[in-house]
Amino acid sequence: MIQNMVEMDQVWSEHKALLSEVEAEIRKALRSEVELVNKVAQYIIDSGGKRIRPLLLIISAHLCDGIDKSFINMGGSIVEFIHTATLLHDDVIDNAEIRRGISPARVLWGNQASILVGDYLYTLALSLTVKIDKVEINTLLADTCLRMAEGEMLQLNHNNDLNLSEKTYLQIIEYKTASLISTSCLFGAIIADAPDAEKEALKAYGKNIGMAFQVADDTLDYMADNDRLGKSLGEDLKEGKITLPLIHLLRNCKDSERIWIEKLIGSEHFFPADLKKMIDLMTAYGSTRYALKYAQDFSDTAKKDLASFTDSRHRQSLFAIADYVVQRDH
Amino acid sequence: MIQNMVEMDQVWSEHKALLSEVEAEIRKALRSEVELVNKVAQYIIDSGGKRIRPLLLIISAHLCDGIDKSFINMGGSIVEFIHTATLLHDDVIDNAEIRRGISPARVLWGNQASILVGDYLYTLALSLTVKIDKVEINTLLADTCLRMAEGEMLQLNHNNDLNLSEKTYLQIIEYKTASLISTSCLFGAIIADAPDAEKEALKAYGKNIGMAFQVADDTLDYMADNDRLGKSLGEDLKEGKITLPLIHLLRNCKDSERIWIEKLIGSEHFFPADLKKMIDLMTAYGSTRYALKYAQDFSDTAKKDLASFTDSRHRQSLFAIADYVVQRDH
What we know:
2 copies of one chain form a homodimer. Chain A has a single domain (8-327), classed as Orthogonal Bundle (Farnesyl Diphosphate Synthase). In chain A, 74% of the residues lie in helices and 0% in strands. Chain A has 15 helices and no strands. The first copy, chain A, has helices spanning 8-14, 16-29, 35-46, 52-63, 69-93, 105-132, 135-157, 166-191, 196-220, 235-238, 244-252, 255-266, 272-284, 287-305, 313-327. The radius of gyration of chain A is 20 Å and the shape is globular. The interface between A and B is large, with 39 and 39 residues.
C-alpha cells in the first residue's frame, strides 16, 4: 500500500476557495422562474453531503496543470447537479424515509416534486455542458448519465436476486456509482487539455476509487462499529439490494443459513436480532473482511493508476482521497 | 378561419415513408446492454400514440426546403424520446392506472423502472442531440427539457388550486406541452438551415398548435359526446388539475356551486353523477364553449403564423394539423 503524506482534512481546506466558487456557480445556475424548483433543488443540494466530485475535478485539473477557473466552476456544478438529480430519484425509488439523518425531499415535497426536480437538474447539468461547447465533454456527460440510469435499472432487475453474481454486482456499482466519479476526474483532465495518457490515467483512477467507495459503503451497511452507533444498518438488506458481503456469505454459508437469508430478504418484517445474526454470520465466514479487502484493492489500484504522474502535492491529495473512500463513512 | 385543402389522413400517408425511417432510427438507438431498459422503453414508445412531433419536424423541414434525411431521422427520434420520457414520468406522477386504453409501464414494471427508463430516454435524447453537433440544437433541446420540467412543477404547485388564474394556466400548458411541439417545428427549420424569419414563424406556429392541442384536450375531458363513449372523463378533476373550462366555470358560477366544486376537487370519492353535474354546469355557463373557442383561436393564430410562406402542399399540411389538434381526440 502506498503511504500518503497528506491528510484528507488538509485536502478539503486547501481547495476550500475553489469549492466555494463551485458552490456560488451552483446557486447562480439555480434560477428557475418556478420558485418551488429552486427551493427543492437547493434543499437537496444543501443536504447532498461533501462535494467530493467537484473536489476530484479540481484536483485532476490541477494535476494536469490546467486551471481555467470558469470551466472548473461550471464543471464542478455540472457533476454535482447530476449527483443530486440521482439522489432525488434514488430516494423515490428506494422509498427512503431518511437521508443523512434528515428528511429527504420526497418526504417534504412528495415523490412527484422529487421526480420533476430530478429531471430538471439532469437537464440543467446537460444544458450547462452545452455552454462549455466541447463535443468531448457533451458526449462524456451524456454517456455517463446513460450509464447511471442503466446501472440503476440493472440493480432494480436484480433486486432480491440471491443468485446475483459478483461480476454483475461489480457492473452495477461501476455503472451507478463509479462512472460519475470517473467522469469527474476525466472532466478535470479535459478542462486542462491534458494528453490522452493523462486522461486515461485519471479516468481509471476515478473508476477505481468509485468502485472502492461503493464496495466500502455496501460493507459498512453491515458493520456496527462504535463510529457508526446510532446510524441505520442493514438498509440494503431491507431494500433487497444484494451487495458484495452478502454475495460472499451466500457462496460460503450452509444450506440452512441460505434458506434463512432467502426468507429474510423477501420479508417485510425485519428485526434487529435478524440483522445481528446476519452480521455475526458475515464475521464468521469472513464476508466483511473479504469485501473490505476488495475495496482496499480497488483503492490500491487507483493509486497505481497515477504512477505515470510525477510525485506532487496534487498526486498526494488524490492518494489521500483513495484512502479516504475506504476508511470511513462518507 | 382559413380553409385547408388537405385532409389529415393524407398528411399521415404522404409522410409514411419518412416516419418509418424515424421509427427505424428509434429502434436503432434503443440498444442498452440492459435488456429491461430496451423492453420498457420499446413498450412505452409503441404505446405513445401517433408520431405527431416527428411529423411536424418533417413537414417543417420540407416547408423550408431542407430535407437532410439522416438529420430528420435523428431529430424525429430525439423529439419522440423526450415525449415518451415525459409520458413515463407523468404516469408515475399522476398515479395513472390506464393510458390510451392499455396499462402504463408503471403498472407492468413498477414506478421505479418507469422513473429510470424515463431518465434513460431523456439522456438518450440529449446524447443523440450531441451527435448532431450544432450548438443551436443542443441549446434548444436542453432548454426545452428544462421548460417541460418547470411546467410540470408549476402544475403540481397549483394542484387543487381553485384560484389558479387563466394566465398561469396558459403558462403551465405552454411549458409542459407547447414547448416541445414548438421545438419540433423549429428543429425542422434548423435542420433545413432556414433563415431566422422562417424559424421564428415555425416556432410560433408550433407553440400555438401546442396551446390549441392542450386546451382542446383539457376541454374534451369534460365532453361526453358519442365519439368518446366508453372513454374516461373527468380525469383532470380527479387528479386535481384545474384547466380552462373549470377556470371559466369558477369565475362565473354561484357561490353555492363553487363550494360544491371545492369539496369535489379535494375529495377521494367521485361519482359519475358528480361528473354529470359538472358537465351540465359547464354547458349552462358556456364554459365548454368558451374553452373550445380559445383552442380554435390558438389554431387560427397558428395558421396566421405561416402567412409569410407562399402557399404550398406543406403549408396546407400544417394547416390541416392546426385543424386536427382542435377537432378530435388525439
